[in-house]
Amino acid sequence: MTVKEYNKSVALYSDNIYRFVLKNIKDSEKAKDIVQDTFEKVWRNHTDISYAKVRSYLFSAAYHTLIDSVRRDKFKAVWSDAEQNKHFTTRSYSDVNEVLHQALDRLPPVQKNVILLRDYEGYSYNEIAEITQLSEAQVKVYIYRGRQFLKNYLVKIELLV
């Protein structure tokens, strides 16, 4: 891939990658850092990457960078410093979008990622399999299970409201 093609890929895909990462971690600054790290990885390997495959490579690199970041951050939380009152709420919400995001946050990371790639970003099963390094059958199973969970979760929420 040439420098011109690299710059074109930054212009074309940076917003999509940012949205994908942001949907997963809900922290705009971390999302920006992950996108920056992703494009840095691509730049380091730009001579070995075909421009025709750059989109898949970018999402794969972003996915793996995101997973690495989440694993690193998992060990940083200090629960003794947390305020007890922050963990309880008496407010009720009727915003469907917010309830859907809460439901997405309850999914296992793999299911959440494949659902976001399929339903939010519009990737095909084959492309998702390539990005996540799962088989196409596994991708279909994770999407099915994730959608079933979301359906059941939303029905339960509906009964409470």
Structure, described:
The protein is 73% helix and 0% strand. The chain has helices at residues 3-25, 28-44, 54-74, 96-106, 109-120, 125-132, 136-160. The protein is mainly alpha-helical. The chain is globular. The longest helix has 25 residues, at 136-160. The protein has two domains: 1-75, Orthogonal Bundle (Rna Polymerase Sigma Factor, Chain: A); 93-161, Winged helix-like DNA-binding domain superfamily/Winged helix DNA-binding domain (Arc Repressor Mutant, subunit A). Helix 4 (96-106) crosses helix 7 (136-160). It starts with a helix and ends with a helix.
Notable features of this structure?
globular; RNA polymerase sigma-70 factor, ECF subfamily; 161 residues; 73% helix; DNA-binding; Arc Repressor Mutant, subunit A; mainly alpha; RNA_pol_sigma-70_dom
Summed up, the domain count is 2
Tell me the strand percentage band.
under 5%
User: Could you give the order of the helices and strands?
Assistant: HHHHHHH
SS content category = mainly alpha
- CATH homolog superfamily of the largest domain: RNA polymerase sigma factor, region 2, helix turn helix motif
Which CATH class of the largest domain is shown? Answer: Mainly Alpha
Radius of gyration: 18 Å
What form results from the Cα inertia axes?
globular
Number of helices: 7
Distance between the termini: 53 Å
- Mean pLDDT, as a whole number? 83
Largest sheet: none
Helix content: over 70%
Q: Segments where pLDDT lies below 50 for 5+ residues?
A: none
CATH level-3 fold name of the largest domain: Rna Polymerase Sigma Factor, Chain: A
- The count of DSSP E runs of length 2 or more, i.e. the number of strands, is 0
- CATH-scheme architecture of the largest domain: Orthogonal Bundle
Family: Belongs to the sigma-70 factor family. ECF subfamily.
Keywords: DNA-binding, Sigma factor, Transcription, Transcription regulation
Protein name: RNA polymerase sigma-70 factor, ECF subfamily
Pfam family, one: Sigma70_r2
